[in-house]
C-alpha cells in the first residue's frame, strides 16, 4: 500500500515467502543440495521508499514445513530529508541503506 507503507501482516507474509524459496548449494565434493534461503540468512533489511524501513532478525527456522518462523521485526523510521523545503527521497537509495544497515 503505497499511501501508508506496507502493513505488518503483508511484511510478514512477504518475508516468510522469501525465506521459503529454494536455494541451491553446491559443494565441489557432493551433489547439489537444495535448502531454503532462510538457512543462509540471519537477517533481512527491507526498505519501503519514504515509509518506515524494517530489520528482520531470523531467530530460528521452522523444524517442519507446517511450523512458523521465529523472527524479530524492528522498525527503522526514515528521517525527513529536506532541501529548500522540498522532501528528498532519492530513487535507488533503499538498496544502499539496506546494505549499509546489514553491514553495520
List the helices and strands and how they pair.
Elements: H1 8-19, E1 22-25, E2 33-36, E3 43-48, E4 51-60, E5 70-76, E6 82-83, E7 86-87, H2 93-103
Antiparallel strand pairs: 1-2, 3-4, 4-5, 6-7
Explain this structure.
With 104 residues, the chain is an alpha+beta fold. Helix content is 22%, strand content 34%. The chain contains 2 helices and 7 strands. The strands form 3 sheets. The protein has a 3-stranded antiparallel sheet. The protein has a two-stranded antiparallel ribbon with strand order 1-2. A hairpin with a 7-residue loop joins β1 and β2. 6% of the residues are buried.
Oligomeric state as shown:
single chain
Q: Report the total helices.
A: 2
- Please state how the strands of the largest beta sheet are arranged side by side: 3-4-5
- The gyration radius over C-alpha positions equals 17 Å
- Average pLDDT works out at 77
Helix content: 10-25%
The separation of the N and C termini measures: 29 Å
Structural class category: alpha+beta
Find the count of extended strands (DSSP E, 2+ residues).
7
Tertiary shape: elongated
Low-confidence stretches: none
Largest sheet: 3 strands, antiparallel
Which strand-content bin applies to the residues? Answer: 25-35%
* Helix/strand order: HEEEEEEEH
